[in-house]
Automatic annotation (TrEMBL):
All copies of domain Carbohydrate kinase PfkB, residue ranges: 1-292
Main location: cytoplasm
Location of the active site: D251
Enzyme Commission number, as recorded: 2.7.1.15
Name the UniProt record assigns to this protein: Ribokinase
Protein's UniProt keywords contain Kinase: yes
GO-annotated molecular function: ribokinase activity
Lineage, highest ranks first: Bacteria, Bacillati, Bacillota, Bacilli, Lactobacillales
Cofactor: Mg(2+)
Compartments it resides in: Cytoplasm
Chain sites annotated for binding K(+): D245, T247, S281, K284, G286
Activity-regulation annotation: Activated by a monovalent cation that binds near, but not in, the active site. The most likely occupant of the site in vivo is potassium. Ion binding induces a conformational change that may alter substrate affinity.
Pathway participation: Carbohydrate metabolism; D-ribose degradation; D-ribose 5-phosphate from beta-D-ribopyranose: step 2/2
Amino acid sequence: MSKITILGSVNMDIVITTTRMPRIGETIIGEQIDYFVGGKGANQAVAASRYGASTKFLGKIGEDTFGGKVLQHLSREALDLSAVSREKNMFTGIASIFKLAEDNCITVVPGANGLIDEAYVQQTISELSQGDILLTQLEIPVETIKQALILAKKKGVLTILNPAPYNEIVPELLPYIDILTPNETEFAALIGKEAILEDEIEQVIADWQKKYATRIVVTRGSKGVTFVEKSQVVTIPSNKVSVVDTTGAGDTFNGILAAALGEGADFYEAVCMANNGASLSVQKLGAQTGMPLKSEIEEFMKQQVDSFT
Ligand code: ATP
Ligand code: RIB
């Protein structure tokens, strides 16, 4: 069983449920407000630990009230938080989320996440060992991500980058990434396009995979996930579920993917687990609320099989 280390952001998500976005200069009345602990790093760490992986989260919070709430919340999960640092005179990252029926819009103000620096990365990543897994994203300073990936690769650690939100540094990072997990929009940005036509995407992914040593798996929302297995492009559809909130679906996918690989699953099995787990997670409001335990994913998969027999 590999240890999973997740380096990344932790935010207080302030979620406003509303029927539409205000126009510039306009005030509208929203329907509901909720506060959830989020941030791509923390979300992925929670997903991995709920799956049952031995998971360490590396990140920074502020000395404000939200910092205390975040710590209290994450302490309820089976997570190693020993390296989480509380920064003086700095606020905890905030994600302002407008939740609409069709999708959500998010603005992140990084706060303490922006203070993850080379010294922090040097100290924390040097503790990783060969065979461990490092999972990270792009919501903290990108130069420190690069440094973390380089250090981890030197140590024989399996590296996974979820390139979200997309940043132009990604091509430069490829030599240090074993597995890259963009969503469709991020994959389009990676190949320099605004969007990819539905009937072309599988071929484009197959062509990309032929050129690069980094393994790619593209998450595609309600359409599921596409990757290349034994030179064949494979799409595993997502499950039809009753969707409440897709915030953090990608994070659930990434956390479970890392955890399942760490447990020794082969790539195909790990992607199936992650795809099923992510489908389960979208049925509750809040990024982490619906993240499943491994036993819940297994039960869900069994129900899918039973419904066909
Ligand atoms: P987010 O930024 O909202 O966290 P993302 O854009 O990174 O998500 P997606 O590709 O939208 O990631 O979704 C990740 C995975 O979540 C999908 O591959 C799928 O398994 C699951 N998923 C997402 N949306 C749905 C949906 N509407 N129904 C079922 N499963 C879904
Ligand atoms: O991926 C979802 C996350 O993105 C939210 O929890 C929010 O904090 C933003 O970082």
